[in-house]
Amino acid sequence: MLQSCRVTDLPARKLIVIGNPIxxxxxxxxxxxxxxxxxxxxxxxxxxxxKDAVGLAAPQVGVSKRVFVARWEGxxxxxxNPVIETVGDETxxxxxxCLSIPRVSGLVHRPERIRIRGLDRRGSPIRMEADGWLARIxxxxxxHLNGVLITERAxxxxxxxxxxxxxxxxxxxxPTTRDEIIAAFRKTRRLPTxxxxxxxxxxxxxxxx
Length: 209
Hints:
Elements: H1 35-50, E1 55-57, E2 67-72, E3 75-86, E4 91-97, E5 104-111, E6 113-119, E7 125-131, H2 132-145, H3 150-153, E8 156-165, E9 168-176, H4 178-188, H5 194-200, E10 206-208
Antiparallel strand pairs: 1-2, 2-3, 3-6, 4-5, 5-8, 6-7, 8-9, 9-10
């Protein structure tokens, strides 16, 4: 799930985090859009809203099906069995976060423009073009359906840690790697604490207000 900054209400379904093998598994094609898929879509939309997110894929709630939802500029999108085609050669680098990898940001290159096709929640064919951040969201969520996380895509990865100082709270960005991130989550089996993150990613720190 591509993540924005604010976390709000409790989600409809529990999110799973990196280290769970479902996140690295290729999700199953949906053969029939039935009641269970409708409930899944409703839960994904509610969970996405509760986390103030802009996208969420089924594997992130422990369901290995090729379904994702997104929200951008007041519009909701639902895709089942999405297929993405790049339009043109232009790519753009942008910072992405993911609720399945809390406190981590990655600099990821994505196509500027794409075509996406699949099924809507009624099981009807849907096709559209997207560019900019909406294209990035669709690519990020489709990656989840293919078992690919930003830890595999990112050119740079950082922990984002809030620490107390004499001048008040500061956000510290700590350069990290895929292996360090996985180690931190395996060590705690939940969201790593600031102390765990700093221990695992001790070198080459940068501080920002």
